[in-house]
Each structure stands twice: as C-alpha cells, then as structure tokens.
Amino acid sequence: MSRNGFPRHPLTRAVLSGLILASSSAIALAQENTPTDLGRVTVTGSLIPQTQIENHTPVLTVTAEDIQTRGFTSVAEVLQQNSLTTGGLQGGQTSASFTQGAEASGMFGLSPSYTKYLINGRPMLSYPALYNGSDTFNNLSGIPIDIVERIEILPGGQSSLYGSDAIAGVVNIILKDRMDGGVLNVRGGAYTEGGGNDFRVSGAHGFNAFDDRFHALVNVQYEKSSPIWGYQRDLTKQNNTKGYTPQVPTNDFLVYLPDQQNAYVMMDPTRCANVAGQFGGTTVLGTRAVGESCGSPFSAGYKTLKNGKESSQIYSSMSFDVNDNFQLFADALYSLEEVQYNAGSGYAFWGSDVGFGAFVDQASGEYMNLQRAFAPEDISAAGYRDIMSTDRNKAYQVTLGGRGNVGNWDYSASFSRGEYKLTERSFARWANEIDSYFEDRVLGPVLGVTDDGYNIYNPNWGAFYSPLPAGDFQTFTGFTYNKSRTWQNLGRAQITNGSLFKLPGGDAGLAVVAEAGSEGWSYTPDQRLLDGSVWGTTSVAGAGHRSNYALTSELRMPLLESLTVTASGRYDAFKIADKTVDKSTYSIGVEFRPIESLLFRGKYGTAFRAPSLSDAFQGRSGYYANSSVDYYRCGQLGFNPSDTVGCPYANESVFGEQSGNPDLEAITADVWNAGIVWAPINNLSVSVDYYNWKIKNEVNTLSSDQLLLAEYYCRNGQTNNTSASCQNVADWITRDGTGKLDQIYTPKMNIASQNLQAVTASFKYVQDIGRFGALQFSSNYTNMIKRELQPQPGDDYLDLLRDPYAMWNYDQYAKVRADGAVGWAKDKWTTTLYFNYIGKTPNRMAYLGKGYDYVHPSGYEAGKWGSYTTYNLSVNYQAMDNLTLSMMVNNVFNKMPDGQAHSYAGNIGAPYNSSIYNPYGRAVYVQAKYEFGKK
Questions:
Q1: Pairing state of beta strands 148-155 and 122-123?
Q2: What DSSP designation does 729 have?
Q3: Dihedral of the CA atoms 203, 209, 211, 216 (nearest 10)?
Q4: Tell me: the pLDDT tens digits for 631-651?
Q5: In sequence order, which ranges of 571-627 are alpha helices (DSSP H)?
Q6: What is the dihedral of CA 139, 140, 143, 146, to 10 degrees?
Q7: d(CA 375, CA 373)
C-alpha cells in the first residue's frame, strides 16, 4: 500500500541511522552508508502516513535492540529510567502502599494517570487498584518484553489525537506482528548483593500459509524472580547507623504513658533478657530521651524492597489478505501474574490504643498503652516469608478488524475487548481475636473502672515481654481477599488519504477517526475490612461504568517544500452516571525546513482528562478533621476569617467523610511546544524542544477548611471564591440543634491547577571507524524549568522545583534527568555502555526543616544530594548465524544511595528516598537467543 519513496536528505537519514544501528544491520549501515528507501510510515503523534520521521511533534523511540543492549528487564523499567521521568513513583519499595504490587511510570513529575498508554495503538486497560488510594492508572507489568518491537514516547499534550488522559504525553508499546521462522530466548541472572534471582524464557514463531496470504505470530513468555529483602542490603538491614542522631532499636516491646506526653516506661524486670532471641537474637534494651523499650535495630530489614514475581504471557498476531485491497487482522494478549511482597514488621504489630484504648495499671496508677511487634520467631520457622501478601493479576485484550484501500483512501475498522481482574491476598490481624489474645494473656481480668471510664488491669509483664508460644500467632492472623476488576470495549474506524490533493510542498493528507466504547471498574474489598473485623486496616469499595464516543480528524498540509502545517481536532463525550462530560480539543503544528538539514517545529493545542471511574464512583471513607476552624460560629462572635486567634471555635474536631464525585468536570490543559532538529551530516542529529503546560480543574479532595470557609461566606451573603458552592455547603455540612458542627462531607472536586515548563534535548551520532567497526552515541536530557501548583483556589502557588517541602509532598524530585548510550559494533561483537543520570535532589533534612537554610541541632544542614549516575554494560556475541550469546551487567559500579543516610535519623530503617532511588545494586544476566526456521 506504499506509494512514495523516502526522501534522501541528511535530517531523515541521520535519525534513521540512529534507529538502525542498534539492529543486526548496524555494520552494513556503518560500512556501506547507502541510502535507505522506505515508504510512508505511521508514527505515534500522527494518524497520517508520512515520509518524514521527524515532524512537528518530538517522538523518542526505544527499539527492541535498545531494550536488550541497555539491560532493561521490563517495559516498566524502560519507562522509569527514561529521562522524561523526573518525579517519584510508588511501587515495590513503597511499603503498605495501595499498589505495592504494581509498576507505574509517568512524565515530567505529573501523575501516572496523566500519560496515555497504548499497546499497538490501542488504550491499555486500567489497573483495578488505585494509585495512592485514589487515582486510576496503568500497571506496566504483564507486557512480554521479548516480543516488543519498539516503544514510542510522545511528550506533551496529545488529546486532539488520542483523547482523554494524554496531558503529559503518550506511550505506544508496539509488539511484533510478523516473524520469519522462530526464536527462543533464555535469560537468567541475579544481584551480586543477594536476592532478586531471575529466570526468563520465551519462544516465538511466525507462520504463513495460503500462498503467503496468511501470517501469524505466536509468542509465549514465562518469568520468575525472587524478592529482595531489606536484610539483604547493608543500607536497609538495620536502623540507620549514619544518621544525624545515634542508632536506636525499634520499639518492638513498648509501654508508654499517654497522659505524660507518651513517655516510655520499662516494665520488664529482666530488662529485655527474655526476648533477646527475637529477630535473630538482636533484640536489646533501647534508650531514648523519652524512656526505655525493648527492640531490635535489625527488625527494619524484614520487609521486601523488590517484589517477587511469577508471570506468564501469551501473545498472538494474525492477518489474512482476502485480496490485494483488503486484509483481516487480529491480535490477542493474555497475562497471568502473581506478585509477592511484605510490608515488614512496621505493619505486623499490635497496640492497645487501636482496640480498646488506654488503661490504668493497678500497681502504679498510671494510664498506659502497649505496643508489641511480631518477630519472625513469633510467626513460624519461615518467619515473614509465611505472611507474604500476594497480588494475582489476570488480564486479556483481544482485537479483531479489517483494513484495506480504495483508490487513494485507506480504511480500517476494529473492535477491542479487554478485562483485568485482580485478587489481593493481604496479611491481616483479626480485631477481636488479637485484642482478646493480649487481654487474656497480658492484661488479665478487668479489676475496675476509673471515674473517667478507663479499665483497670494488673498486667502480666512477664507474658508481655516474652516470645509467643508456637502456633499462637496463627490464632489471630490470616489473610483478606480483595477482588477488583476493570473492563473495556472499544470500536474504532478510520479513513486516511495521504494524497488528498496537491500543494506546492507535496500531497496533503487527511485522516478521520470515529470511536465508541464503554468501560467499567469495580473494587470489592473483603467484607471483614468493611465491618471492622480487621485490626488496624480498613478499605473503601467503589464501582461504576461510563460510555463514550469520539470523532477525530487530522489534516496535514505541505504548503511549501519547506513549510508544513498540521491541524487536528477531536470531540469526546463521556456518559458518567446521569451526566455527560464532553470536551473538544485541537492542535496546530508547524514544520519549517529552511534547509535540508534543519527543522524548526512547534505545536499549540489543548488537552484534557475526563473524570476517571474512581474519581466519580469511589465509595465513602471516614476521617476526623482535627484543629478545624468553625468560621461561621467564630464570625458570630465578631472574628474575621483572616484572624481567628482567641475564638473558642478555632480548634474543633469534626467527623468527616470523603468520596468520589460523579459531578466532576474534565481536567483541562493548554499545551504548546517549540523546538529545533539539526542534522548537518547524514549520521548526526541534535534536537532541542521546549514544553509549556497550563493545567486547570485538577481533581483533589476538598479540604475541610475550604468547606467551612465557604459556609462563612455563604451564610453572611459575601462573595464565595472557594471551590464549594453555597448549595454544596447546605448539603455537606451538618450541625446539631445547638449549632455545633456534627459532620462534614468533602468529596473530590475540580480545585487544583498547575503550570509546567520543561526543556528536552536529544543527540544521536553514528561513526564508521573502518576495520574497527562502528560507534553509536545517543543521549536524552530533560530539565524542568518551572512547576508550580495551586492546591485550591485562593491558595498561594507552591514551587515544586525550589521549595523542598513541596517537592517531597508532591513527589517532584529531579529537576534534571538524562540517559544515553555508547555502542560499538564489530564483526560478531556488539558492546553497549548505558548511563542513567539523576540531577541533584533535596535531602530529607530540607524537607523536615521546610527549607534549604535549616540547620538541625545536631549540626546537620539541609541541602541537596549530589547527582546520581548508574551504568549498565552489555556484550553480545554472534556465536553462529542463528545463535547470539549475551551478558549484561546492570549498575556496573554497584552504586547505591547510601550517602543519603546522613540526612535521616537513627530510627529510620530505609534512610534514602525510595520514590526515585533504589538500593538493589549490581545485577548480572546472561542470555542466549536461538533463531530457527528462517526461509
């Protein structure tokens, strides 16, 4: 169906050279340097096939060869290591987070939900669990990396082509659809510091039949990896030994006095001797300024830093040429994964304050609370490995369609169906059982009740300060099972004409796309989490669905040989509950080539994100809004909202509920970018691009303070500039008969806004060195120039690049990030050195002190951690025509963030910023790739 040759000028050939060198034809390219003739191709960022790889929108491409030679182990790692990923991310290192078993990524420090993820150009399924407990996102695990053809990363707002969610950018993961013969990959490796052992095997085979009219590809991949535990790394095996305060053990056996500012008191006459064998014989007497307790400095190591995982994927792609002008196609991807992790001893304990509150010790007359952590010896012979939480993921996505051409018109139509099911098996402590166990074993019978309602006990301190008898732990613990699901249907039809009419610069192109679909989400927690049967843990249910349709058009006009203008527009409509949320978006892009080797490009457009299903339908959860100011009652006493000092209602505690909101509007953004691409010679290209976002109507939970302030304005007939309307106030604030606050409701609302500016740069260079082979150099760079966020209307903007406190709160850490590679190919050998660079980030002390000028009493100063660079090295050897042997060493110099420990106190078990760094260390992998059956 291709009708046009590839233009042979330096700009295109330089970019093409950088893409091809990584492939098996690298040597031929470097030595012969012959022009390549390609037809029109469709790249992410345009619906119209074109002869230029570089256009008005920058696209970063990571090929299958890049993935292998740079040592990437998963699609998630490819994207997390990308220079565009400047923010922090939750995942396997984030103990007890809502999605510890998932793998996420984002761009420019924005939420992962602001990036549109595609597989073969079609939207990925949303993960059923919610990022940070509230946000819909895509889990990048479950994609078979060995069958990835390339990953195209398109930064900037792209809603005029791709619809909702494409605010930060678009990522298109393109899987192979055809193969000559078959290939078998076997790969294994481990970390030199221990843990993380990995084995992966995959096989793929291409088939053809019916006089080469039928083509099929089948791929199967299996992988199993073990977790990395905290105790397997020096940095995390014990509480911080290099902090600004001395190391102290964890409070594993603690008695504290709530009416004496939670001072510690030692009630063990043996002073921890009876429990010295806990946590591998490391439990000791710990002394702090507030008192003494028993604990181990090594208990912090009993959590996983990297998830264990066992996964299988099956992928198939098929096509059948009905005739010369029409083809049927189909593809299907099925994934089954089981992810294991453990949040550690910090989430395996009991405390008296949660179940029945403080009590009075008969002997001393003191109000007391108890805290008791469970050691591996308490659990079983296998310890914490016996209480691993497990996420079981099952997902499929199937597409059926047809495509063809009539004259100059290409057309396609397809239908996709996908479903994602998640079962979370989580460690739990049963509330009644665990409270009863310690009441019977330690506290004993109630001996009386004080005048203020507290039970009086005579505790058995010997029983409290002792290991649990074998089997007792299992009587009050077990597992909960949360079940959740997402599904998606999408019908899509497209017509394209790459030669609509002639213009001075060439053929104009037009594409029109119509889409319609539906999607659903449900999250059903274990009933025991909802009715209070689980100690210290709750959950929130939610369910809903939405339908949508969209119409997209794109017109590409080469007005002159040197000037091309591309315009696109899209209309989206979503039916959410009984409300329709619709949005029109557009973009205008310009490409100007004053000379063959130089491209000036730019684009202005709009982007949006429709209310997600979780934002609209997440269930209600309760909280207490402590230290709330009742502005209305203070106003009745003559106090102005700007000065409530002295008001008796300025420190209220009120019960509140929060939830999703089906009345949300779309998040909107104005986005533009401008840049330059220069290719002075065939094998060199340099690009620099600037991006600017203005994002409005972001979703956040309404604060209790905003709601109470709105009530003051509404009841006094004043202008209400808050995000809550006066009708909201009437519906969401409840008072008793005396006027006292009884309850408030603070749902998600469109209240936040932010502004971003960023500069990216890319460099590619290929050098033929004659009989010594060929060299390739490539690098990508991102510099965040501006990111400011206004949490709610009327608030001051927070500077997320220069205010360290705000940077930590909003996971915006790296202002600068870069990566790159140097490759050398000669005969049967290829070698690649890859680097990943994270610029300076604010240290923990800058966050704690809320500024860079803070100095801790210990003398440790707030500031920034230095830049952080890791290197991966790979060597490939073509042992036979059909056999390639490889060795990859990731993090060659065993770099770890241990220098960050000085910025943390001595009671911290993971003294580093786990949102952007990791302590995994060096990993070594070997791989064999065997190809067979080629014709």
A1: unpaired
A2: H
A3: -50
A4: 999 999 999 988 888 898 998
A5: 613-617
A6: -160
A7: 7
